[in-house]
Amino acid sequence: MPVPTKIEAPSGAPPASQPSQKSMTKAERRELQERQRAAKLAQKSVAASSNAGKEAAPSKPKAASAPSQKKSGDASGSGAAKSSLAKDASNNASAAVDDGAAKSVSRGLRIFSHFGLPKPVGHSIKGDIHPAIIRLGLLFSEFRICGANARCIATLTAFKTACPPSIFHSFDYATPSHNTLSRHLMTHLSPQITHLVAARPMSVTMGNAIRQLKLEISGSDIDMIEQDAKDALCHKIDNYIRDRIIIADEVIQELAGKKINEGDVILTYARSSVVEKILLNAHEEGKRFSVIVVDSRPLLEGKALLKTLTNTDPPIPCTYALLPALPSLMTEVTTVLLGAHSLSANGSVYSRAGTALVAMIAKGHSVPVMVCCETYKFSEGVMLDGFGKNELAPPRFSNPIKHSQPLAPTPNLEILNPLYDLTPPSCITAVVTEVGLIPPSSISSIPLALGRTNL
Amino acid sequence: MDIERESTDLVKREFLAVLLAGFGNELLPLTSDHGDEPCPKSLLPVANKPMIDYTLTWLEQAGIKVHRPAIYHHIHSGASLSLSSLRIDLQTFDESQDTSVGTCTLLRHFSSRITEDFVLVPCDFIPSPSLPLSILLNKFRADAISDGSIATTCWFADHKPEKGAFPEEWGPHPQPSPIVWDEASGTLLHIDTPDDQDRNGEEIELRMALLSRYPRTKLSTSFQDSHVYVCRRSVLDALHEKRHFDSFREEFLPWLLKVQYQRTRRTKYARYLNPITNTTSQRLALKHSTMSKETSASNDSFGTLLSKDPSISVPPSPTDGDDDHGTSNSFRVGVIIHRASAGFAVRVNTIPNFLEINRRLLSQVTYSLPTEPKDRSLIDQKAQISSDTIIGGSTQVSERTMIKKSIIGRHCVIGKMAKIVGCVLLDHCVIEDGAKLEGCILGKNTKVGAKAELSRCVTQAGYEVSAGETVKGEKLDVSDWTAAPDDDDDDDDNASEDEDDGSD
C-alpha cells in the first residue's frame, strides 16, 4: 500500500536561500524538542507509578470542572494516594504543555462547595435572549451592578424593555384571551430569568419583585387591548420601583435621620445605598456629624461610599478603616447604621459578609445597631446561619496586587470568598423600615398589621 | 428591493455586521485581475479556504446569526457559502481599482441601512481561537450600559517578520502606530496617526486633560489595529458631521478618541453621540449600585471644585429625564489588547502576512491521503509529501515529486521530479516536470515551465513562467509581458518576459 514518506528535517538543502528558513524553523525545532522532552518526562513519571498516574489523569480533568460535593468527597477519600499524587501532579503540571493552562491542579473547595463556583461568562448564548437581558447578565457577572436595590431595579427595568411588543401583535388576529397572554408572557420571561440567574444567583429582592410581577401579569384584565395591557404593566413596574424602593427610601431617610443628632459618630459597613442616602440627607438638613466607614476585601465597596460622602459641601469628616480595626474604633461610636440584603422571618439579617461582626462588637459595647431595610426585602423563610445559602465571589477579586493576573489555582491553596453572612436578631436594636422602627423579631407581624396577606 | 417577510422574532436584532471586502491593493499581484475576472481579496484562499470564510465563521460563532452583513463589492459566485443561516445582503458600491474609497465614505453612503449598533469587520482579519468575537461584544455591551461607551476596538500584537525572511520587493512591513491606552478600564485614549507623525516626528503630543482623567496609561508601538470596531449607532451621526474624513482608521477613530477628554469637543458633539433611543438605560440601577465606577465620572476634578452640582443630592426618580450629570455618557472607546502570548492574530493585508498565516495554519494540520479513490489515484505513490502540507482536491501529483510545508490548491497538476518547499499554490496551477519552487506564492492558473526555478516570487493569476527560467524575489505581473522586451539578460534579478511563446 503506498504510503507517502515523511520528510524529516531538511538535510543537504541548497544553502543560498535557506539560512532564513533555517532560522525560523530553528525556533520551531527547539519548541518541538522541548515538547518531546516534556512528554518523555511525563511518560517516565507515569510509568513509574502507574496506578497513581492513572488516578491523576482522571482526577485532574475532574478537578478542572466545577467542584461538586461528591468530588470533594472523592478527593478526601483518596487521601492515602495524595502524597504520591502530589509529586506526580507537579511533574504532570510541568509536562502538561499540550493540556493547556486551563487544566488546573486544584482539588476543589472543601467547604462551601455546595454554593457552586461562579461560572465564567459563556460565549454562546442559548436561545432567544433579549439583548437587554444579555447586557444585564454581563453587568451582573462583572459586578458592575451590585447591591440588592440596584439589582432589583436593573432587573425590572430590563424586563420593561424585554417585554416583547410583538407577542401582542401576534394576537392581533385572535381575540386575546388573557390566560394565553399571561402564560405566553411567563414562558417568554422564564428563559430570560434563567439567564440572569446563571450570571449571578438571584437576590431576594429580585425574587420578590419577579413574584409580584407575575402576580400582576396573571391578574391583568381580560378585556383590555394589548397596547393598554402592555402600558399598564410598565406602569405597574414603575410604580413598584417608585413606591417600594424610592419613596420607601425617602421615608427611611426621615425616620433614621431623626435618630442622628448633632456631633454624632456614625459607623457604617461596606456600602449600602439606603445608608448612603440617609447620611447625605441628614447632612443636607444641616446636621453635622462624622462617619466611620468600615470596609473589607474582596469588594472594597466602602471606598466608593467614602468618595461620595467626602464630595459633599462642606465635606463630611470621615474615617476609613478595615474590619480588623473595628474594636479600637467602636469606643467612639454613637450609632451603627447597617444595610441589608434581606430580612428573614425570624428577624435575622442577611447582609454583606462582615456585618455580623460589626453588629456583634457594637452590641458588646452597648452601641445601638440600626438596620435600614425596605419592606420589599423581607423573605418568608427562616435562616439560622449563613452556610445554607450564600454566594462566592469570583476569584478575580482576590488579587494581591490590583489588576494583576488572577491567582492561579494551586494544589495547596483555594480561594474562598463568601459574600454574605447572617446577623442574629439579638445583636440588632431596631430595624428602620418605611412603616416605622420595629424590633427585628416582629417583622412577620407587619403584613397582619397592614391588613395584607403578604408583603 | 426585496420584500421579506418579517419573521415573528420576539427578540430584536442586537448587532448588524458590516463586512468590508475591498480590492486588496497591498496584495498585488495576487489580487490583480485574471484576464477580465477580478480576484478580490476576500476570496483569496488561506489554507484552501477563502478568507471571507474565516470571517463569516467568526461572526457566526459570536451568535450574530440572523444578520445581514452589507458587502459592498460584488463577490463572485465562486464563494460557495454554505452558511445558510446568514441572510446576506450584498451591496455593491461602484469603485474602480485605482480610486479606492475610504471606509468613512462608504459608511456614510450606507448609513440609512444601518439602524442599530454595528460591528465593522474587515474581510482579512484572522483571529486566533482564543479571541472570539464575543469578547469584544461583551465588553461593548457592558461598557455601553454602565459607562456610555461608544465603541470598542481590538488591537493585537504585531508580528514582525525576521530580517531577510521576505524579500524587499514584497513590500515593507506596515509600521504600527503608537497608541496610548488605560489598562485598568480598557480604554483607548490616543492614536498617533501618520499625520501627527508628519507634523511632529520626534514627540508624541498628549493633552493634559487626558492625563488628568487617566493618570495611569500605557504607551506602545507593538500593536496593530485589527480594524474590528463595535460601535453604537450614534457614531454614524457624528460621522455625518465630519464630512471631510475619509479613512475610518486613520482619521475618524483618532478624532473620536479626542471627544472623551476634550471638554469643548464633548459639548459640541455630545448631542450626536448620545443615543437616540435610550431603550436600556440602567441609570437608576447604576446609581444604586454599590460597586459602580461612578467615582470616575466625577473625573472632571477641576470642574467639580468650581461648579457645585446641586442635582447630585436630589434622590432620583424612576422616570428619569435626560440628565447626564454624574453617571454614564463618558463617550469612552474601549479597547481589547490581544497579546502575542494569547495567540496569533493577523490582518492579511500584505504578502508577508499572507505567507505567515498560511504557515501557521499548516503547523496545525497533518496530511493524509485523500479518501476519495478518484483523488487518490491522482497522487502518485512515489511522491514524497510531508505531513505538514495541505493539498486540495483533484490535484494531480506525479511521481518523485517532493512537497514540503506547502499549500496546494485544487485541480493543480504537478509534474514529475518537482520540488515544492514552503509555497502557496492557488487553484488550477500547473507545475511542469523538474520545476523547483521555494517560498513562492502562485496565483490561480499559473503555469511554471519545466526545470524552472522560482524562489520567493509572487505571481499574478494566469502568469506563465517559461521553462528553464530562474526568478528570485520578484512580483510577476501579467502586464510585464506586454512591456517592451528590451533587456534580454536572464539575470537573477530580472525576470525576462520576452519569452512570449510562453510555457514549455
From TrEMBL, chain A:
Family in the record: Belongs to the eIF-2B alpha/beta/delta subunits family.
Sorted UniProt keywords: Cytoplasm, Initiation factor, Protein biosynthesis
Region described as Disordered: spans on this chain: 1-93
GO molecular function, one term: translation initiation factor activity
Species whose genome carries this gene: Tricholomella constricta
Compartments, as annotated in UniProt: Cytoplasm, Cytosol
Protein name (database record): Translation initiation factor eIF2B subunit delta
Complexes and interactors: Component of the translation initiation factor 2B (eIF2B) complex which is a heterodecamer of two sets of five different subunits: alpha, beta, gamma, delta and epsilon. Subunits alpha, beta and delta comprise a regulatory subcomplex and subunits epsilon and gamma comprise a catalytic subcomplex. Within the complex, the hexameric regulatory complex resides at the center, with the two heterodimeric catalytic subcomplexes bound on opposite sides.
A Pfam match: IF-2B
Bias kind Low complexity: ranges: 56-93
UniProt feature, compositional bias: Basic and acidic residues: 25-37
GO cellular component, one term: cytosol
SUPFAM superfamilies: NagB/RpiA/CoA transferase-like
Annotated InterPro entries: IF-2B-related, IF_2B-like_C, NagB/RpiA_transferase-like
From TrEMBL, chain B:
Sorted UniProt keywords: Cytoplasm, Initiation factor, Protein biosynthesis
Record-level GO BP terms: cytoplasmic translational initiation
Start-end of Polar residues biased regions: 292-304
InterPro entries: eIF2B_gamma, LbH_EIF2B3/5, Nucleotide-diphossugar_trans
Coiled coil: none
Ranges for domain EIF2B subunit epsilon/gamma LbH: 379-466
Compartments (UniProt record): Cytoplasm, Cytosol
Domain of life assignment: Eukaryota
Region: Disordered, residue numbers: 284-326, 474-504
Extent of Acidic residues compositional bias: 485-504
GO-annotated cellular components: cytosol; eukaryotic translation initiation factor 2B complex
GO molecular function, one term: guanyl-nucleotide exchange factor activity
Gene3D superfamilies: Hexapeptide repeat proteins (2.160.10.10), Spore Coat Polysaccharide Biosynthesis Protein SpsA, Chain A (3.90.550.10)
Pfam families according to UniProt: LbH_EIF2B
Subunit description: Component of the translation initiation factor 2B (eIF2B) complex which is a heterodecamer of two sets of five different subunits: alpha, beta, gamma, delta and epsilon. Subunits alpha, beta and delta comprise a regulatory subcomplex and subunits epsilon and gamma comprise a catalytic subcomplex. Within the complex, the hexameric regulatory complex resides at the center, with the two heterodimeric catalytic subcomplexes bound on opposite sides.
Family: Belongs to the eIF-2B gamma/epsilon subunits family.
Entry protein name: Translation initiation factor eIF2B subunit gamma
